[in-house]
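Journal club prep — side note

Before the paper discussion, L.F. wants everyone to see what a predicted structure for a comparable chain looks like in token form. Sequence:
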Amino acid sequence: MTRRLTIIIAIIGSTSILAAAFAFQFMGYSPCKICIWQRWPHVVAVFAGVVWLLYHDSRLLLLGLLSTITASSLAIYHSGIEQKWWLGPQSCTSSGIGGLSTDELFSKIMNAPIVRCDEIVWSFLGLSMANWNVFLSFILTLFWLYSIKHNQKT
């Protein structure tokens, strides 16, 4: 497989992940804060790939690789929050109400974000959107790594 084809596949992969995220949002699945964070590395990967196709600057290959590693890492972080393995950002995770005064409870309810990062709102084959993002971003990481390791002509 040529480097050019590998990068085109990586561009299509990240673009597809972004398109799916926006499709789910259009269907009424509002994204949480971490879901939004997970989109940005894919935007950077698409940008790096498209610019590489134009200029063939090998530094862009590293940017694409780092972007998909970042996307995988954020998705792992989000998956752990969904599974209650660790806490997420306070503005994005539900927590207990024990020990709160009436005023503190009222304030917590009034300031609560609409979408929680620690709730799985959709799953397929037992995997949440964050889990799928881990898997797919890791596969894209392998494509970027292949493009770096195999120094063929374009």
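L.F.'s comment for the group: The first strand starts at residue 123 and ends at 124. Keep this in mind when we get to the figures.
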